[in-house]
Amino acid sequence: MQRDFHPLTVSGLQKEIGGAATSVTFDVPQVLAGLFQWTAGQHLTVRFLIDGIEQRRSYTISNPPVSALRITVKRVENGIVSNHIGDTLSVGDRVEVMPPFGQFTLIPGALQRRTHYFFGAGSGITPLYAMINAVLADEPHSVAHLIFGNTNANSIIFRDPLERLQTQYPQRFTLRHVLSHPSMLSWFSPWRTGRLDADAVQAAISETPPVAQDTQYWICGPGSMNSDIRAALQNLDVPADRIHTESFGGDTESDLSVSGVAATARIQLNGAWHDVSVAAGQTILDAARSVGLSPPFSCQSGVCGACVAHLSEGTVHMRNRAALEAKDISKGFILCCQSVATQKNIVLRFED
Known about the structure:
Blueprint: E1 6-16, E2 21-27, E3 43-50, E4 53-60, E5 69-74, H1 80-87, E6 94-101, E7 114-121, H2 125-138, E8 143-150, H3 159-168, E9 173-179, E10 192-193, H4 198-207, E11 214-221, H5 225-235, E12 243-247, E13 263-269, E14 272-278, H6 284-290, E15 308-313, E16 316-318, H7 326-330, E17 333-335, E18 339-341, E19 345-349
Parallel strand pairs: 7-8, 7-11, 8-9, 9-10, 11-12, 13-19
Antiparallel strand pairs: 1-2, 1-6, 2-5, 3-4, 3-6, 13-14, 15-17, 15-19, 16-18
Helix pairs in contact: 4-5
């Protein structure tokens, strides 16, 4: 599959949490149906031309695979694309969209018997919501527990749909809200107040302990939440390979300790090979783009994973690797927007 952009028509818009977020549904024509199949947890990269400048962003698909293709975008203060989507986008508009991608995925199995814990905060619910729905619909012998942190009741994305899931699957799905600043005027009663921290993690697991030997832990949130929850789980002796994280930014600092060396990169892109000179300190993505190549990319901060490639020869240093888990790195996957060469000859391939 080549990761090119395709024009998709906006078929639906839904304001969430009082307009602070917007769900955008796309119509996928039959000719593109195969390209736009996805697994719960994956992203879409969208491309807009705003005030004459190309803007790319990655947003998680917030529906499970059996539903309509949808992203949910929370406004960011002074955010060019998020506010464009919230204020300007209309049903019938055409948006340039790259096919789904991403390593943070949950593949349900009809015969699997698993316990899934989901820890999310804010718009980090978007991949988790798709995953939970996939488990409940397509993994009938498994259970799911969501611990969801927000500021107050009015900031809970998908509050009503989550409550409906709880009603529909009372034996298989639990929902716990953690509010950091609940309103004194609200009748909403959260499970806990304060931060979604180590105490909350331990309390949730104690209240609903695993009922299956195969237990998986899924984490998605802003800032340091991912690393904090991961540390809390590891302190409870949870094996590292059962903890899966997706960063929404700010979770890790860039490692600038290695400046990189000048190199020649042999790059396979869309089935063709290219020899590209990489300057010392230059990322592979920047080097490829500087000679006219068009590799896939989006955030350029190591978070989304759009620029992932497979390194088969040579070595690189990644300044940030938030979009990759240890198992991905061990298989040779790199983030080209974060990678500088540490050997003079490297060979890599963008996945078709």
